[in-house]
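Ticket 4471: requesting a sanity check on a complex prediction with FE2/S2 (inorganic) cluster. Repro inputs:
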Amino acid sequence: MPKVRLHRNGQIYEQEVPENSNLVVLAGTKKFPQIRYGCGMGRCTRCVSRVLAGGEHLPEPNWKEVKRLGEEKLKNGYRLTCQLWITHDIELLQEN
Ligand code: FES
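Returned structure tokens:
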């Protein structure tokens, strides 16, 4: 199972998640409640995370991420967490 390490509010939360999990779905079902999210549909950007490690295993940003985040943020490792399905270990930062 992939391991997710989340940095948020000065804390580090780490847990294994089922293969191919969507982290916002896990947050919504209280299985990973520390993850910040909103719409779950790639619209609000509340779930934005900076990928610190493991980004090489993620698919290319989809059109919603391109539209909401823009080239600069994507280039700096930002992704919409609600648009990611996790298949490998990943480390994320959610800034306030
Ligand atoms: S939760 Fe709204 S864009 Fe991801």
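Notes from triage: The longest strand covers residues 3-8. Leaving this open until the requester confirms.
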